[in-house]
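hey so i finally got around to running the thing on that chain from the lab meeting. sorry it took forever, my laptop kept dying and i had to restart like 3 times. anyway pasting the input first so we r on the same page abt which one it is
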Amino acid sequence: MAKKTRKKRDAPAPEELSFEEALDRLEQIVHELEEGELGLEEALARYEEAVGYLKRCHGLLEKAQMRVELLTGVNEQGQMETEPFEETEEEE
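ok and heres what got predicted. didnt touch it at all, straight out
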């Protein structure tokens, strides 16, 4: 018996989403894959989509970590030092 295939949804591009939105979409895809009801082609398409959301989440987490590191510096007097975080085109 053939597995069900679902209609492809208009999914937002990963770079358009916040961390929370990308993570939510990633979790939805994982759930769909775990259900095991998708055909091979649809499962591969969902997996590829999930990789994009995973990369988005990872990139946003790296940016957040860099910002925290810049904000947690301490000078010789024990006072907190901060530096502005400047995003470059590569990071966006």
